[in-house]
Design goal:
Length: 136
Amino acid sequence: MNSVTGDVYTLFFDGCSKGNPGKAGAGAVIYRNQIEIYSQSSFVGEKISNNVAEYTGLLIGLQKAAELNIERLHVKGDSMLAIKQLRGEFKVSSPSLLPLYNQAKCLEREIGHVTYEHVYREYNKRADQLANEGLL
């Protein structure tokens, strides 16, 4: 819930890599009270890992949430690695992920209150669609 309006904001994110590493896309969607208010797909690059693509989708969404002055955000994604790293359950040891993780933590502080939840792919269809659109 946003402390001022009582609105509930949820961010879904996803990333995909065809070849892993390969051509990669990322997507993010933000809902306010279960109504989509923002969506973005992005081409991440060539020879990109799936984990980097996932983090890129997360960062797209967190950046927009910060721009929208959202103060409380619930984040859902199907990347168990990213979710567990962001919750502090897994250490970030990959040199390619550490700067992305640090950027996410910086945006998290800017937003204020962020929680993370792992969801299965079937519950992340819109973000998955956006990530795949990023490949086009």
